Write a sequence for this structure.
């Protein structure tokens, strides 16, 4: 069994300060969204005001919360906290957090040309801040976490068979979102692809929706989505373990 080694980068106080700054800033961004919530009626994207705390329903926000926790814990670990090291230096946890935030960035960026995301507006301070938050959560944090992944904190590997674990959280999140949308009043789906009518209208726009069949139509899409999480997790594990092999030479 290889002796556990700490990446020299994770012993540098300046690196810990950088991680701490990123973690605190990310947390402040989320708190800002909650504290300075402004509802603006948009019939295409937000026809109903669900309240300020409903932003916590979005996978984007949840994955960014995970990132904040991971960065803050990593910062404490670098700065010498032994309890934090048990969490931050766990490569499986790091791989999961990186996978979830990577999917967040990919899905959002793919949705822009398809018209699935609200357009950016920069005409006043409120719109500018909202636009910055969208860019920060979807286009800055995901590549930042990916970059961080290429600098593993220890030489501990992750077993490839654990890749299936990456699908548990998105599966639970998806089921909850679908069920919540079906029973809530007013109806709320965090993303259009969780709504039964979304794929039905894409394929059978000339026919009245049949709910049981519409839900069955969602099943293969849900399965593919979960497999994407597992696949990206497996790729991150592969990258990680190759880096560890180099570290152990």
């Amino acid at each position: 069994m290889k002796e556990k080694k700490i990446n020299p980068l994770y012993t540098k106080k300046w690196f810990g300060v950088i991680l701490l700054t990123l973690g605190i800033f990310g947390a402040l961004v989320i708190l800002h969204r909650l504290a300075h919530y402004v509802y603006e009626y948009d019939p295409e994207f937000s026809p109903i005001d669900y309240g300020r705390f409903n932003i916590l329903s979005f996978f984007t926000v949840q994955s960014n919360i995970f990132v904040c926790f991971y960065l803050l814990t990593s910062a404490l670990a670098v700065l010498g906290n032994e309890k934090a090291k048990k969490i931050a230096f766990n490569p499986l946890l790091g791989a999961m957090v990186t996978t979830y935030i990577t999917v967040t960035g990919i899905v959002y960026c793919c949705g822009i040309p398809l018209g699935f995301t609200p357009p950016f507006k920069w005409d006043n301070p409120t719109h500018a801040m909202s636009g910055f938050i969208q860019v920060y959560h979807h286009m800055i944090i995901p590549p930042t976490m990916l970059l961080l992944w290429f600098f593993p904190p220890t030489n501990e590997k992750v077993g490839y068979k654990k890749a299936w674990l990456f699908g548990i959280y998105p599966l639970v999140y998806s089921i909850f979102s679908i069920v919540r949308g079906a029973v809530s009043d007013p109806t709320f789906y965090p993303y259009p692809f969780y709504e039964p009518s979304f794929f039905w209208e894409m394929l059978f726009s000339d026919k009245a929706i049949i709910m049981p069949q519409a839900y069955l139509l969602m099943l293969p899409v849900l399965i593919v989505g979960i497999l994407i999480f597992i696949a990206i997790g497996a790729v991150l594990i592969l990258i990680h373990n190759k880096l560890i092999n180099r570290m152990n030479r």
